[in-house]
Amino acid sequence: MQSADLVRLALPLHGLTDSPFTVLRSLGDTVARVDTPAGPTVLRVCEPGTAEARLAEVSTFQNAAAEAGLTVPHREAARALALPDGTHRWTVRSTWVDGEAPRPVTAELARALGKATAQLHALDFHPPQDWTGPVYGAAWLRGWWEAGAPRHLSADDHERCAPAVAQAAIFMEAHAAEARVIHSDLHFGNVLLAPDGQAAVLDFDGCAVAHPAFDLALTERELLDFPEAGTLTEAYRASYAGQSRQPYPFEAVEQCRAATGTAFLEWVYGSRNPEVRAQKEMWVLPLLDDLALLG
C-alpha cells in the first residue's frame, strides 16, 4: 500500500477526514504533515513492530526537552489502524513545531553532515556508512540509557553497550551542540553489538537538524532523491574527505544502499530470540566484514 493511501486511511481516526496532507517521509514509518483549521499537525503511521519505540521516543524527547534546550513535538493521540489485509498499524498524531519543520537541504548542511560523519569515524565508532551526525545532548543520551537499559538489556549486554554510550556522550559534548544534529530513533534496536565485544550507538538515518522526531532523514542515500543531488553529494563527500584525510568510501556506500536502513544491521541487540539472532548474524556479519566496518 502506498504511503499516501495509509495516511488517508489514518486521517479519520484522528478527526482529520478529508484534511489536505503532504507525505514527508515514506521510508520505514510514513510521516505526513496534515493541514487543519487550527494549524498543521504531524501524523505518523508506524511500521509493524515499531510503535512501542516511536511512542517511547516522543516521551523521551518531552522529558529531556528542558535539559537539552530543545523544542519537541507533543504526542496528541495514538490510534490503531485496521488495514484491508487484516493487519494493524499504530498511528501517532503529534504537534507540529513551527520554525523547526523539515528544512531545505543545502550544500552547507551536506558539508556539515559529511564533517560530522568523518569525525565519528575518526573516533573509531565503526558506524555504517550512512551515518549523518551525532546525537544531540550528552545528558539526554545518558538519561535515555539509564532509564531504558534495565528493562531491555540483559546484564551481559548492558555491560557491553555501556562503554559505547559513554563514548557517544563524550563525542556529543565535544562536537554536537553547535551542529544540533539529533538522533530521532533512539531505542535499543539501534545499539550494535559486534562479535568481538565492541558496541556502538548507531542508525542515524532518521536524524534531523534542530527537530528531533519528524524531520526528513538526511542520509547520503536519501540525498540522492533531491533535484540538487549532484551538488549536495559532492559537498558531503568532499567535506568527509577533508575532515578524515582519506577518500570517501564509495564502494561501501554503494553496497550499503542495496540494503534498507536498519535491515542490513539486523544482528543488533533487538533479537532476543537466539535462533533469530543467529540467523541474522549469518548474513550480516560477512557483509560488515566485507565493508571493513569492524576495523
Mind telling me the C-alpha Rg? 19 Å
Identify the strand order in the major beta sheet.
Answer: 1-2-3-5-4
Order of helices and strands: HEEEHEEHHHEEEEHHHH
Distance between the termini: 40 Å
Describe what you observe in this structure.
The protein has 295 residues and is α+β, with helices and mostly antiparallel strands. It folds into 2 domains: 3-95, Phosphorylase Kinase, domain 1, CATH 3.30.200; 107-290, no CATH class. 43% of the residues lie in helices and 15% in strands. It has 9 helices and 9 strands. The chain has helices spanning 3-10, 51-68, 107-122, 138-152, 155-179, 220-223, 229-244, 250-257, 274-290, and strands spanning 21-25, 30-36, 39-45, 75-82, 88-95, 181-182, 191-193, 199-201, 208-209. A 5-stranded antiparallel β-sheet has the order 1-2-3-5-4, with helices on both faces. Strands 6-9 form a two-stranded antiparallel sheet. A two-stranded antiparallel ribbon has the order 7-8. Strand 4 and strand 5 (88-95) form a beta hairpin.
Descriptors for this entry?
single chain; about 300 residues; 9 strands; alpha+beta; kinase; transferase; Aminoglycoside_PTrfase; kinase activity; Kinase-like_dom_sf; 2 domains
Furnish the topology, listing elements before pairings.
Layout: H1 3-10, E1 21-25, E2 30-36, E3 39-45, H2 51-68, E4 75-82, E5 88-95, H3 107-122, H4 138-152, H5 155-179, E6 181-182, E7 191-193, E8 199-201, E9 208-209, H6 220-223, H7 229-244, H8 250-257, H9 274-290
Antiparallel strand pairs: 1-2, 2-3, 3-5, 4-5, 6-9, 7-8
Helix pairs in contact: 2-4, 3-7, 4-5
